[in-house]
Amino acid sequence: MMKKWSDLVHKVLKREKVRQVSFVPDAGHSNLIRLCEKDKEFICVRLSTEEEGVSLSLGAWLGGQKSVVLMQSSGVGNTINMLSMLSICQSPLPMLITMRGDWSEYNPWQVPMGQATAKVLEDINVPVFKAYQENEVLPMAEGAIRLAFNTYRPTALLIGQRVLGAKTFGEDND
Amino acid sequence: MLDRRDVVKTLLKDRGDLLVVAGLGASAWDITAAGDNDLNFPLWGGMGGAVTVGLGLALAQPTRSVLVITGDGEMLMGLGSLATLAVSTPKNLSVVVLDNERYGETGSQKTHTAFGVDLVSIAKGCGFCRLRLVHSQGQVSLLREDIHKINGCLFSVIKISDTNADLVLPPRDGTELKNRFRKKLLGKLAMHQN
């Protein structure tokens, strides 16, 4: 059986010597969060809002540590002004973002931010990568992480609902 | 009432290897007026982010004392970060809020603290173990000693007068501020981290 994307990304984070993993939880990230919390190599920081993960990463980099932030696409809207800190300081941060409001979404309230996620990130000059299939997550995550740390900038990987499975609110036919 | 420049000058006296982050606005000018230093990181933007910049730094450098100096307006914009900091439990981070109950950079409009919002109680509710409310210069000197101790995160509010001090501006090139800080702190690793 193919390894889950979250197991593979966890290994990439270790290989790239990421130390601080911050997050606002999302169902799509639950396995990766669990793996990082069990792993003593990582300092896990639970955030009260996603923008804290952005400013946290600048502090981590000032102190010589790499960090990543995990969030849902709805949280991207909370980060935009804080991201200016990273571009103006040339400070690296890969953002691993699980999507809502795209493929097969049930909740209409998720759609406006979901559909705007890539656009607002691009508007503030964050390079955006997208994984719409399970086998795309690992290479896209590796690329987004390397681009961030090799070239000192925030980057984003959007992991689509096609990979994660859409939340069905009890109306699943299965 | 305490004067912000006297307060910050006292806090940063004989600072040793203290790492200092300042929130945007007057707090950034205050740490610069006390003496620009490669180990100062004055923010020029990212309002609400000072505490979490300090947290990332404190977690990365657990043997160094880290001090975040910010204003009441900046702190109010990032109240959630106090909860995030308190549950992250770094032992080496102190937060000092210079509270003049005003947005000093935008025309001295009143902040929530002018209407009774109590930042020390909020920090207490978040779980900070060391709390200080400072009204006198003598208490500032004691606080200066506390921020060098690595024994649990500290939150303090210093009530200051609402007079604006002269502009003493730090460099405003963010990349330069970051690079000089990293070079001083990390040495050669700063330019070759992988």
Characterization of the model:
The complex is a heterodimer of chains A (174) and B (194). Chain A has 174 residues and is of the alpha/beta class. Chain A has one domain: Thiamin diphosphate (ThDP)-binding fold, Pyr/PP domains (Rossmann fold). Chain A contains 8 helices and 6 strands. The longest helix of chain A is centred in the C-terminal third of the chain and has 18 residues. The mean pLDDT of chain A is 95. Chain B is α/β, with parallel strands linked by helices and 194 residues long. In chain B, strand 5 and strand 6 form a beta hairpin. The longest helix of chain B has 13 residues.
SSE diagram, text form:
The complex is a heterodimer of chains A (174) and B (194).
Chain A: H1 5-15, E1 18-23, H2 30-38, E2 43-46, H3 51-62, E3 66-72, H4 73-76, H5 80-89, E4 93-98, H6 111-123, E5 128-131, H7 134-151, E6 154-159, H8 161-164
Parallel strand pairs in A: 1-2, 1-3, 3-4, 4-6, 5-6
Chain B: H1 4-11, E1 19-22, H2 26-33, E2 40-42, H3 50-60, E3 66-71, H4 72-77, H5 79-88, E4 93-99, E5 102-103, E6 109-110, H6 119-126, E7 130-134, H7 137-147, E8 154-159, H8 174-186
Parallel strand pairs in B: 1-2, 1-3, 3-4, 4-8, 7-8
Antiparallel strand pairs in B: 5-6
Helix pairs in contact in B: 1-2, 1-7
Q: What is the total domain count of chain B? A: 1
| Beta strand % of chain B | 15-25%
- Compute the CA-based radius of gyration of chain A: 15 Å
Query: What is the helix fraction of residues of chain B, given as a range?
Result: 25-40%
- What would you say the CATH architecture of chain B is? 3-Layer(aba) Sandwich
Largest sheet of chain A: 6 strands, parallel
Number of helices of chain A: 8
In short:
The complex is a heterodimer of chains A (174) and B (194). Chain A has helices spanning 5-15, 30-38, 51-62, 73-76, 80-89, 111-123, 134-151, 161-164, and strands spanning 18-23, 43-46, 66-72, 93-98, 128-131, 154-159.
Name its key features.
heterodimer, A: 174 residues, alpha/beta, Rossmann fold, 6-stranded parallel beta sheet, 6 strands, 47% helix, globular, B: 194 residues, 8 strands
